[in-house]
């Protein structure tokens, strides 16, 4: 209760045991708030704090000027009493012709984002009137009439409604609806200034924005559209997002948000000391590290063509074949092993099976050796053309073990705090600086968001991405101080999550992110088109076909005799020529 009250007023004030009344009148007068001689503002007595557990649900102000209301509201704004969604009653019935000040009082309350307020006054004739206001739309319960419409700073009207006191008949109280009602369910086109952060194209190798921005943007549009609000979006580089330093001072765009230049900001990193202004989005990423892959030598590269299990399987198969051929050919193991080695390398063999069934099995084995030889030859050529890479960093602490130099933006320091990485990390302005540093230093590593990191390594085989599973990263929507719409926004966002729509949007956007990004070619690298290599490809295919036909012809001549094969070949050619002649001459 605020104002110039008489102490005897509280003697008959109806109180319930579960309620606590804080009397903002006491023994010590605040001289700085003494605006008029007949009005006083006082500090709270220290004993009042002993039983104070919750913010004030009902605030009653009487016999107080507009300037005093603003001063008192500024004083209690950051106290435990402050309640943005409380019920505020201003009583000016103690003097006549006080209804003309309704807008002045409502303007002060709306500067503090207070929307549940009623103003009681007397007109010139002494009749009592009740005034309420709606800063969003002209939606009002039945029985109220429009009194005044005033444009606000955002160009949206604030509407004041009035009702005579004699309309309140029976047990209806002005502390219950229809005086106080939820005005946030229909905003009537109220403008919402939104700040979006976008990763610059030059910082990422892809044209589209970050996946988290796409999901959050869709959700935000859905919520404000359903509330009939008008969105005014501004886009800024993600490097200007700002954060809160160790002293608790905001910087960058976050400072502008707190100053009221914007109403909300999308996808800010979670700030542990800033929870009051945040709405958790249920979108999680992680802390990842970008680093170079190690180049393997030719020996290690050849051994890494197959896994250990495949190498053991090949060795076992070759050993079995050596034993089988030794039994069939009746020669030594060394001769059989040398014969198989010649087959693998594509050189003619010294010994062949004599029986037809064994020869058929042998031909299948020869074709298998040809395929295996082609695979090995292609892999060996790839080793000579481009180095084979290996992910050396298996876990984040390998960066410390191998003495990597880790670079991170300021916003990642809160995640690395109280870990070993805080002693090995250097601050940078943006991740682009770190990527440039990696081009000249193979021992440099970058701390990045896992979503953005996955985009940066996509299509770059020489880079690896390692996630720190112990450091989850949360995304939040941040609102300005005392934003009265944060509660309805949080309620609708929770309902979207409970209905499963958020999970559905995440799956859709992940699928789009994986298939929709277009890779930019690296500077200085020219690609080879298929048309430039098709001649060599066709030449290789024709050569293999010719070699296969020659091999089959040699087998046929050996099995059936040269004369019979020539006779059959001539018959096939003659029949083919006769068909061509009939086709073109008919």
UniProtKB/TrEMBL annotation:
<feature type="transmembrane region" description="Helical">
    <location>
        <begin position="535"/>
        <end position="557"/>
    </location>
</feature>
<keyword id="KW-0812">Transmembrane</keyword>
<keyword id="KW-1003">Cell membrane</keyword>
<dbReference type="InterPro" id="IPR052192">
    <property type="entry name" value="Insect_Ionotropic_Sensory_Rcpt"/>
</dbReference>
<protein>
    <submittedName>
        <fullName>Uncharacterized protein</fullName>
    </submittedName>
</protein>
<keyword id="KW-1133">Transmembrane helix</keyword>
<keyword id="KW-0472">Membrane</keyword>
<feature type="transmembrane region" description="Helical">
    <location>
        <begin position="360"/>
        <end position="376"/>
    </location>
</feature>
<feature type="transmembrane region" description="Helical">
    <location>
        <begin position="302"/>
        <end position="325"/>
    </location>
</feature>
<dbReference type="GO" id="GO:0005886">
    <property type="term" value="C:plasma membrane"/>
</dbReference>
<keyword id="KW-0325">Glycoprotein</keyword>
<keyword id="KW-0675">Receptor</keyword>
